# Entry
Amino acid sequence: DQQVKQNSPSLSVQEGRISILNCDYTNSMFDYFLWYKKYPAEGPTFLISISSIKDKNEDGRFTVFLNKSAKHLSLHIVPSQPGDSAVYFCAASGETSGSRLTFGEGTQLTVNP
Amino acid sequence: GAGVSQSPRYKVAKRGQDVALRCDPISGHVSLFWYQQALGQGPEFLTYFQNEAQLDKSGLPSDRFFAERPEGSVSTLKIQRTQQEDSAVYLCASSLAWGQGKNQPQHFGDGTRLSIL
# Structure
């Protein structure tokens, strides 16, 4: 039962353009969402989070949008840079899911110079 | 230290051996988590501590897996009688606060890559 899904295994964009990474979830009790970036042989690095009381959170080049009715969130990176090339994971938690973060399978982003 | 520190970075063991993986969380973080990550997948939750108390161990796959955090800081994940399916990256994360609507981001270490031969 995959409660958090990232349906695109990979995404390729040109440097300077916008990257949009998508994530869907099935558990309506999730109320806290995070995006992580992961380089090979390193642990996930926290990027940005959003709680369910908001529909948007912005931090520099990164913006996360939450659509609760559609159970969908997205991460926008603008402008994209080659150093953004990594695997991006979305993760979710809620009181009914207890202590855990539930992760998606990840999307490999490649930003071409 | 500045971040979550895990050791060893790589561990190779023969099937049937016991292994111990160490996690040093960010100073002041009361919440500590262990995750298991298989190749090409997202991390999967194993267990959670708040200070020294293990509040959730529902993700531990079998009774061969045991975690402790006796003084509320460093944590050790122990796997007894290792099997080949235990091969994975084991990630530790810590957070300033977790639960009861006060979630703060979990920050991860670089993991221990465990290979069972």
